[in-house]
Design a protein that fits this description.
Elements lengths: L2 H4 L3 H9 L14 E10 L21 E10 L2 E7 H6 L1 H6 L4 E4 L4 E4 L1 E3 L11 H8 L4 H6 L8 H6 L2 H17 L2 E7 L6 H16 L4 E9 L10 H18 L5 E6 L6 H13 L3 E6 L17 E4 L5 H9 L3 E4 L1 H6 L8 H6 L4 E3 L13 H12 L3 H8 L1 H6 L17 E4 L6 H4 L6 E6 L2 E3 L6
Parallel strand pairs: 1-4, 1-5, 6-7, 7-8, 8-9, 9-10, 10-11, 11-12, 12-13
Antiparallel strand pairs: 1-2, 2-3, 5-14, 14-15, 15-16
Helix pairs in contact: 8-9, 9-10, 10-11, 15-16
The protein binds N-(iminomethyl)-L-glutamic acid and fe (iii) ion.
Fe (iii) ion binds next to loops.
């Protein structure tokens, strides 16, 4: 199993041990790490000849190795195999003292979760909305009465960048504690040029202090702010002509997102925003079909990375998605927290060959959870996904949704050393123990987080 490592000279190993990782890694050292005695190692390696996101029956292929071991070095996965093979390897025998060995004692190890849809740049929880909904008001009614997204704007507009960055960083730490190693983070609660850029800068600042990976998204078109009510087109012009060019020029975002729905932005406006994004070299994704149906067909010309929510989809949308690499990202936390009876039709999508991912949609209005295992549990109980499908949707297909599948989402030599160790014997327990955090250790880019308390 250590074949790949044999090729690495001991000189390079010493370099790796002595050098602090990157400037963004909190100055932690990426020592060689061996995770051994893994009860179930979910590699998520693909054995299918078909490249691309996992679809249909391939979604539940987890590539499980029993009694596995993973060697990480310099922030990358170096080799993957059985513990027996790892310990027999002459290189490891010789260099054992340089390697931090983590005895997983039968626990489950899987790729760190890729949470491909979050809104972490906000200041306060929306407790008034929460209580109004309990009394029977709907998300749309609360928004129309001045609550909802618009009520989160003032706090973000007033906050300083460092205060916002501190909130984002706190969320990233909470996510990592539950097994997440890659996070997509959207702006979208400022909705002025200045406060959207400030939000993206806060994401960048938080990312620079976290060992995991953050992918930033400009969501300037989250809702029409009240200054532009009745003249939404003027706001769209600002998004297209000011926000997108400024975010692109300063390399603050990889993606542009639009909330394309009833009460938010019209499909024609989403197309204009996508056009501006493409002109400035940014990729696109969208909130689609959460409250009402929007036909997806006109949007495929922009090669969107993902359509998210997808509560309302029709046969044509499904047929189109099955033909493309655009991921359908399902966020059942939002349905749960809004108290909805209906959930997105995951079974129908998967059975039709649509590549499906799962994400938390962490935000103050519809989904205040940072837990991917919770999203997976909801996917199993309410959307009838199998635990295996939920694992792949939360890892490798999340990586596809962020266009980072070449580096993330599976445990394979050469990929980033992003791992989650769960104190369970069987991977099906991850969505089973809902509301409990069974994540015992997270490895983010080769940096082990939680080692001090690991048993
Ligand atoms: O994904 N639907 C749009 N955006 C969020 C909700 C944001 C909020 O209510 O603050 C979502 O559910
Ligand atoms: Fe969202």
């Amino acid at each position: 199993m250590i074949n790949a490592l044999r090729a690495v000279s001991s000189r390079r190993l010493l370099d790796c041990c002595s050098v602090t990782s990157t400037k963004k890694r909190d100055k932690k050292i990426q020592l060689p790490i061996l995770l051994a005695n893994i009860g179930q190692l979910l590699t998520l390696q693909t054995f299918s000849a078909k490249a691309g996101p996992r679809r249909g029956p391939d979604l539940k292929q987890l590539g499980i190795l029993n009694d596995g071991a993973v060697l990480c070095f310099g922030g990358k996965i170096v080799s993957v195999g059985t513990t027996k093979d790892a310990l027999r390897d002459p290189w490891l025998k010789k260099n054992r003292k340089k390697v931090t060995e983590i005895d997983c004692a039968g626990k489950v190890v899987l790729p760190g979760f890729v949470d491909s849809h979050t809104h972490p740049v906000f200041v306060s929880p929306r407790l008034v909305d929460f209580e109004k909904r309990i009394e029977g008001a709907s998300y749309e009614e609360i928004a129309a009465a001045g609550g909802g997204i618009r009520s989160s704007l003032e706090g973000v507009r007033r906050a300083g960048k460092s205060a916002l960055a501190a909130r984002v960083l706190a969320a990233l730490y909470d996510m990592a504690a539950q097994g997440t190693t890659t996070v997509e983070a959207k702006s979208g609660y400022g909705l002025t040029v200045q406060s959207e850029l400030k939000s993206l800068e806060a994401i960048r600042e938080a990312a620079s202090r976290w060992a995991g990976t953050v992918v930033a998204t400009l969501l300037g078109a989250h809702v029409v702010p009240k200054e532009f009510q009745g003249c939404s087109q003027k706001y769209v012009e600002i998004v297209c002509k000011e926000m997108i060019p400024a975010a692109a020029k300063r390399k603050l975002a990889q993606f542009v997102d639009v909330f394309c729905d009833q009460g938010a932005f019209a499909p024609s406006q989403a197309e204009q925003i996508f056009e501006a994004a493409m002109e400035h070299g940014l990729s696109v994704r969208a909130h689609m079909g959460q409250l009402a149906h929007t036909a997806l067909r006109p949007f495929f010309r922009f090669d969107p990375a993902s359509f998210d929510h997808m509560d309302h989809v029709n046969e044509d949308d499904i047929a189109q998605l099955a033909k493309h690499e655009t991921i359908a990202t399902l966020v059942p936390g939002a349905n749960y927290f809004l108290g909805l009876k209906e959930y997105p039709p995951a079974r129908k999508l998967i059975d039709a060959g649509v590549p499906v991912a799962l994400a938390t949609d962490y935000n103050p209005g519809t989904s205040p959870t940072m837990s991917m295992p919770m999203a997976m549990s909801l996917a199993c109980t309410h959307m009838k996904m199998t635990p295996g499908e939920a694992v792949a949707a939360a890892t490798i297909n999340g990586a596809w949704a962020l266009r980072v599948a070449d580096r993330k989402g599976s445990i394979e030599p050469g990929k980033d050393a992003d791992l989650a160790v769960f104190a369970v014997e069987d991977c099906r327990e991850i969505p089973y123990w809902f509301g409990a955090n069974r994540c015992a250790l997270t490895v983010l880019g080769g940096v082990a987080d939680g080692l001090a308390s690991f048993v």
